[in-house]
Queue: 2 jobs
Job 1
Amino acid sequence: MSEAQPESGEPVPVPVVEPRTMRDVLGHFASGVTVVTAMTDDGPIGFTCQSFSSLSLDPPLVVFAPARTSSTWPRLRDIGRFCVNVLAEDQTDLSTTFARSGADKFAGVHWRPSRHGSPVLDDVVAWIDCRLWAEYDGGDHTLVAASVLDLGADPGRRPLLFHRGAYGLLDHPRGR
Ligand SMILES: Cc1cc2nc3c(=O)[nH]c(=O)nc-3n(C[C@H](O)[C@H](O)[C@H](O)COP(=O)(O)O)c2cc1C
C-alpha cells in the first residue's frame, strides 16, 4: 500500500495492483489487432498494436499506445506519418511477425503505399492513414494521438480478435 498526498496533507493509501493482475483482468476486454506501419529511407517498418481506438470524429483522431521499450515507435515518431492496419481473421501470422523486435518484419509481406506513402498491408479489414498529432505520458507506455488523413475498409473481411492472451474470431452474422 503506497500513499498519495492530497491537499489536506493526510496520506491516502493507494492500493498496489500487481502487473500480472492488471494483465489477467484487462485481458478480458476483447479487442481487434492492428499493425502500425511507416516508410523509412531504409524501407518499411511496423509493430503489432492492440491498444488502438478511435478518439474523436471532429477533428478525426485515433489513439494507440506503444511501450516505452518499443524500438519501432521512436522511428515511427520521427517520420510522423504512419498507417494503422486492422488485421483480418486469417492474419495471425502477420500479428506474430510484427511483434518480433529486431526482425525484418516485412520479409515476404505484400503491401501498397497509401496516398501519403505509408504501407497498407494487403487483405486487411481496414486501414487508417495518419499523421502524428500529440503524445502523452502513459506510464510504461506512451499515449499517441494521431490525426486521420485517409482511411478505408473491406466489409467482406472479418476482423482478428485478441482476448485473454489468445487470438479469436468474430462469430457474428454481420461478420459472415
Ligand atoms: C496481439 C499483440 C498485441 C500487442 N499490442 C501492443 C501494444 O498495444 N503496444 C505495444 O507497444 N506493443 C504491443 N505488442 C507488442 C509489440 O508488437 C512488440 O513488443 C513490438 O513489436 C516489439 O518490436 P519493436 O521493438 O520493433 O517495437 C503486441 C503484441 C501482440 C502479439
Job 2
Amino acid sequence: MGTDRTGSGLGRFGHTHDRRQEERRGGNFITHAIHGDTCVAVASTDRAMRSKGITAFIFEKGTPGFMPGKKEDKLGLRASETASVIFEDCFIPDANRLGPEGLGFIQAMQILDGGRISIAALAVGIAQGAYESALKYSKERKQFGKAISEFQAIQFKLADMATQLDAARLLTYRAAAMKDKGRKVSKESAMAKLFASEIGVKVCEEAIQIHGGYGYTKDYPPEKYWRDSKLCTIGEGTSEIQRLVIAKQILSST
Ligand SMILES: Cc1cc2nc3c(=O)[nH]c(=O)nc-3n(C[C@H](O)[C@H](O)[C@H](O)COP(=O)(O)OP(=O)(O)OC[C@H]3O[C@@H](n4cnc5c(N)ncnc54)[C@H](O)[C@@H]3O)c2cc1C
C-alpha cells in the first residue's frame, strides 16, 4: 500500500485521480517495492470528499510510469527489501480499481487492522528468539565461579522477559482469534501491536545486556534481533498512532 504520504499521514492525500492520467511522484518505504509484481496504491479521486474520496488501485510491474525507486539501507530486517515507488505520467485504467470508488481509506484501515496483528506476531517471534539466546547464554557464561543465570539480577531479567513475552503473545492471540471470527478488531489489534512491539525491543535490549560485551558484537544473535525488532514500533503505524487508535476506540465506545 503506497501513497505520496506513507505513514502516519495516511488520509491527507495531495493528489487527485484523473481517470485518464495518474501523475504521481513516489511513496517511500514500500516493502518489496523492487521484487514485488503488484502494488496496491490508494489515491485521491475526489479531493473535496477528503478520506471518502480515496480509491484503491492495483499497479502491476511493467506498467509504464510505475517504477521502484532507491533501495533503503535499513538498520534491520535487511533480508526484506524496502524501496520507494514512483508514479510518473502513469496512466491506470478503471479496470485496475480495487473495489468501489471512495472506499480506499476504509479498505486501507481494514488492511491495517489485520496487518497490525501480523506485526505483533513478528515482534513476539523476534523477541522469543532473543529471549531464548539470552536464556541459553546465561546458563553457559560463568562469572565469579558460577553460571550468570544463578545471579538474581539475571534471573529477574529472564523472568520479566518471559512474562512480557507471554502477555504480548496472549494479546496477539486474542486479536487474531477475534479477526478469525470476523469481529471488529481495531482496538485489540492496535493494543497487541503497541504492546508486543514495545516489549519486543525491551526484551532484545535485555538479551544484549545478558550477553555483556559479546551482546555488542555480531558474533551473537541479540544485536540482530534488536535491530530487527525496532521496525515493529514503526511499520503499519507507529506506537504513537496505535495509542491514538486505542484512545479513539475507547472514547467512542463509552
Ligand atoms: C522497513 C519499512 C517497511 C515499510 N513498508 C511499508 C509498506 O509496505 N507499505 C506502506 O504503505 N508503508 C510501509 N512503511 C511505512 C510505515 O508504515 C511508515 O514509515 C510509518 O507508518 C511511519 O510513518 P512515517 O515514516 O511517515 O513517519 P512520520 O509519520 O513522519 O512520523 C514521525 C514521528 O512523528 C510521530 N507522529 C506522526 N503523526 C503523529 C500524530 N498525529 N500524533 C503523534 N505522533 C505523531 C510518529 O509517531 C513518529 O514518531 C514501511 C516502513 C519501513 C521502515
